[in-house]
Amino acid sequence: MTEPSTRPGRPVRMVLTPRTARPPRVPLLAWIHRQPEFRAAARDAAAGQGGRPGFSDAVIIAVVAQGLLPGLFNLVQSWVDQQRTEVSIRIQVGDAEAEIQVNGRTDPTKLLDQATRALREAADGETGPTA
Length: 131
Known about the structure:
This protein is of the alpha+beta class. Helices cover 34% and strands 25% of the residues. The chain has four helices and five strands, in the order βααββαββα. Strands 2-3-1-4-5 form a five-stranded antiparallel sheet. A hairpin with a 2-residue loop joins β4 and β5. The chain is globular.
């Protein structure tokens, strides 16, 4: 039986944090916004809060349907490959929360499995072992 917090129909809230040593050639948010389905779903967490100059791409919040995750993960992986950097993605579905790392060695086809497994483990940790 699927845990309520990891049901496929529930929206996924993600916080994407790029780790760059220098300003990226293309900011991650601009890269994500190239795809129309993510324009309304992804935003700069500092938008409207007078974010510090040079740190506008530090944290991105996205709320998407689980069915869009493969496309978003592919976008993030392609950005990571181009920028030669990594991104930390904190994923939340319901009460379950997990974190995954995306770097140049990450297999984008396995990101969804990794995220699903991490969320399942987080949900199991919150509810305790089942008999």
